[in-house]
Amino acid sequence: MANNNIEPGQSYSDSVVVSDSNIAMALNSGGLAVFSTPSMIALMECAAYKCIQDSLDSGQTSVGITVNIEHLAASPVGANITATATVESVDGRKVSFNVSATDGAGEIGRGTHTRAIVDIERFMSKLQVRA
Fold this sequence. Notes:
Blueprint: E1 11-17, H1 37-53, E2 60-71, E3 80-91, E4 94-103, E5 106-119, H2 120-125
Antiparallel strand pairs: 1-3, 2-5, 3-4, 4-5
């Protein structure tokens, strides 16, 4: 399962607007109407997923296996949040990313994220044991 098409330095950005559905109060991760940490992490993971998906072979995808994130600043409803994932390294099936998130005022989060490349059918067949 070599992944020679994934190169350190390749990156992808994805954006979302802070709304009532992704604030801390809505996700029970806090009591304020600000962009939630779980939503920020999900946006970072989405950027990482999209960053490498087109480089994978047919029948493969990637799954998140680690996150190490700092949420540095609050963002209000209406703010546009952009997360960027940049490939740091590739080690066999593991792809490590530097991730960051910004709003109109600057950086709101940063950290690292690792994804594992998996064969979809094999991965899903293992779920039968867990059902």
